[in-house]
Design a protein that fits this description.
By secondary structure, this protein is α+β, with helices and mostly antiparallel strands. The strands form 7 sheets. Strands 6, 7, 8, 9, 11, 12, 14, 15, 16, 20 and 21 form an 11-stranded antiparallel β-sheet that branches. Strands 22-23-24-27-28-29-30-31 form an 8-stranded parallel barrel, surrounded by 4 helices. A hairpin with a 6-residue loop joins strand 11 (147-153) and strand 12 (160-164). The longest helix is centred in the last third of the chain and has 24 residues, at 573-596. The chain starts with a helix and ends with a strand.
């Protein structure tokens, strides 16, 4: 029997023709609905019309029972509008298939040229259906002189830039089961007029963005949840969601990034008092990797951390498993109930209490999804492990409600019993297409999809139960960085390696999509590992290490959420003094710019290969534009002189430009700083400047 509301909507749209627009100025869809027919006629920025008029845009697409459908092939039932929270307007377009409905939600963020689309398919028929593909968006764009950008990602080589022309089919994707392994879930399309259309998939598992050249100078862009080895059966009354896909427009990449950062901070990112503080973190991992960490070492460093002004001490891997000094952390992931009593004879609460007594917060590492080969959890709870075709995949499948409950209770116990203020959530494996067990509550074709939905649900519940605890996202460093995970955690770790030029490359890339206030990375670390990456050779006792070089390394980390991984108790006195000074500088001056300011990348992306820009400059501007912060770095191979042109200043205003430690001072007008720039010809390679720019409240006469 037909739904009366559905019937009345259908009759309304069949009697009327409507032309409507959805979106803010600078990023808006235009639609035409005539009778039961639907067409997407435009996607308009401030400068460009992005859709080609010669070929229709599908708007979205689904494959049901082996046949692919687009909005043009379905009956349009109309639209419904709502305001779920202040500042977000939501329009749901409804389409009717054969015994099912397809709902496309378009979210508009007030004041921003940014939209988000998310489809949902509902089986309202009498028989089971099979869904094999859900494209959150499907557009036919003008391809002439279009430039496409993206980033590839792998361990230690995150945010490697890609630039291509749409002359042949191309795919950005992840099939590893982690959003940033393969490619990062972000792209930017640059029009001949210079306007930029950026798209980001807000999903932590497998995703895809396809670029297919068409005849007549058109380009078909589609994407969302990856259809590779995906399927989902829906019984009558059941539904499946696609994944959110965000569109944003701007005049350049800096404008795109500002919109994403502002919307993220206002609407997406979880926040609490500790995360808003951006506390300076010490983590033991690289110098005391696994077997070298113990109670004595941790507490000695914690005491030094308090002396140097750190605000969080994090116990990374190495604390759990059998009571043996040689226990290898990777083998026992999952046995979070077992403390390695050989290394920590008084237990973890003893460390936490000591850190709190020193006036700092206590953090702990836990790879809650992972399952080591020697972990007793596999034997004790055979219902939890993920398997594919009977083969263990090395993780706990959160598509199983029992696994979600186990994970929640495990993390709750760590927080309650040990007084944890910060949980570092890592994930060091590739799930691929995911679990296909059929006794977990998910199906054989949707195990990875349901794992991530279950993981998100567990994290949401954890934040609700422990609103003051900070959750850190990590995945072999930077292999799961996306807008979906950043709606569940307070920040993301950028990469395992942290040598200087690498840091600059990944920060430049990650900040295209995410606010710097959620990007955590450490200053150049001292690795214990007997075979570290070739560039990871920092030695605090190196006679060639100068104050200027250390400042250069540290200021790179201070571009976002700042931390350090060194043997604090063994630092030379001069270096310990510089660490304390940088901590004070970050706390008193820098982090308010990171938390509240807009970022301008003033130079192009430096590359760890020795290519790319060999200078790097970043400017932060507070919302009222009264104060600015400028970071300048001369990289190895950088020319001796560079002119840095600033942004976002008032042309007629006079500014004082000065080093935060008194190194330099200039008085210049905003016009001069933006047009003529600052000439920097006194830095050696691997040296830096950290400058504050303050209006003197005088106008140039």
């Amino acid at each position: 029997m037909a739904n009366p509301r559905q019937t009345s909507l259908k009759e309304h749209w069949m009697r009327n023709k409507a032309v409507l627009s959805v979106g803010e100025s600078g990023c808006a869809f235009s639609f035409e609905i005539s009778g039961s027919s639907f067409s997407l006629n435009g996607l308009r920025g401030k400068i460009c019309e992005w859709l080609t008029p010669s070929q229709p845009s599908a708007f979205l697409g689904v494959t049901v029972n082996g046949r692919h459908y687009t909005a043009q092939e379905l009956t349009c039932l109309g639209k419904e509008e709502s305001q779920p929270v202040p500042g977000i307007r939501q329009t749901v377009f409804r389409f009717e298939g054969q015994g099912w409905e397809l709902h496309q939600t378009v979210r508009v963020y007030a004041g921003f040229p940014l939209m988000e689309v998310e489809p949902r398919l509902v089986n309202n028929g009498d028989v089971e259906i099979v869904v094999e593909r859900i494209d959150s968006l499907d557009l036919t764009l003008k391809a002439e002189d279009l430039t496409l950008m993206g980033f590839s990602g792998n361990w230690g080589s995150e945010f490697e830039p890609l630039t291509f022309k749409p002359y042949q089919p191309f795919v950005l994707e992840s099939r590893s089961g982690r959003s940033s392994k393969g490619h990062h879930p972000w792209t930017a399309l640059v029009s001949p007029q210079g306007e930029v259309l950026s798209a980001a998939v807000a999903w932590s598992g497998n995703w895809v963005m396809r670029f297919e050249p068409l005849q007549g100078g058109a380009l078909r862009f589609s994407g969302g949840l990856h259809d590779w080895l995906f399927s989902k059966r829906l019984k009558p009354g059941e539904a499946v969601h696609g994944v959110p896909l965000v569109l944003v427009m701007g005049q350049d990449l800096n404008e795109i990034s500002r919109h994403l950062s502002r919307v993220g901070r206002r609407f997406w990112y979880p926040r609490n008092a500790l995360s808003l503080q951006l506390p300076v973190e010490w983590n033991h991992w690289w110098p005391y990797e696994d077997v070298e960490i113990n109670e004595e070492v941790f507490l000695a460093n914690a005491r030094k951390a308090a002396e140097l002004g750190f605000e969080v001490c994090t116990l990374d891997a190495g604390w759990f498993g059998p009571g043996d000094a040689g226990t290898f952390w990777y083998d026992y992931r999952g046995d979070w109930h077992r403390v390695n009593t050989r290394r920590f004879p008084h237990g973890i609460r003893f460390l936490s209490d000591a850190v709190h007594a020193l006036g700092m917060k206590f953090g702990i590492w836990c790879e809650i999804e992972a399952l080591g080969e020697k972990a007793s959890l596999s034997r004790d709870r055979p219902d939890l492990p993920a398997r594919r075709d009977g083969v263990p995949l090395g993780y706990v499948c959160m598509g199983n409600p029992a696994a979600q409950e186990w994970a929640f209770q495990t993390l709750s116990r760590l927080i309650r019993e040990w007084g944890c203020d910060w949980i570092k959530l890592d994930f060091n494996l590739d799930p691929g297409a995911g679990c296909n067990r059929t006794d977990h509550g998910h199906q054989e074709g949707d195990g990875l999809y349901e794992h991530y939905r279950g993981y998100y649900q567990m994290l949401t519940r954890l934040r609700q139960e422990f609103p003051d605890v900070v959750l850190e996202n990590c995945s072999s460093g930077g292999l799961r960085i996306d807008l979906g995970m950043l709606r569940q955690t307070h920040m993301t770790f950028l990469s395992d390696p942290d040598w200087a030029v690498h840091d600059l490359q990944i920060f430049w890339g990650a900040s295209t999509m995410l606010a710097p206030s959620v990007l955590l990375h450490w200053t150049y670390s001292h690795w214990r590992n007997i075979d570290p990456p070739p560039q990871q050779r920092f030695d605090p006792l190196d006679p060639a290490l100068t104050r200027a070089k250390w400042d250069y390394y540290t200021r790179i980390s201070m571009l976002g959420w700042y931390g350090l991984s060194q043997k604090l108790s063994e630092l030379p006195a001069w270096l310990a003094e510089r660490v304390a000074q940088h901590n004070r500088l970050y706390q008193n001056e820098v982090r308010r710019f990171i938390r509240d300011g807009d970022l301008h990348r003033l130079t192009t992306q430096p590359l760890r290969s020795g290519m790319g820009d060999r200078w790097a400059a970043f400017q932060y501007s507070l919302p009222d534009e009264s104060e600015h912060l400028l970071f300048v770095f001369r990289l190895p191979g950088g020319e001796p002189r560079r002119v840095i042109r600033l942004a976002d200043l008032q042309a007629s205003r006079r500014y004082r430009v000065f080093g935060l430690e008194g190194e330099v001072e200039w008085y210049r007008t905003g016009r001069s700083l933006m047009e003529e720039g600052l000439e920097v010809d006194f830095l050696q390679e691997e040296e830096s400047l950290l400058l504050k720019i303050v209006s003197t409240n005088k106008k140039d006469s």
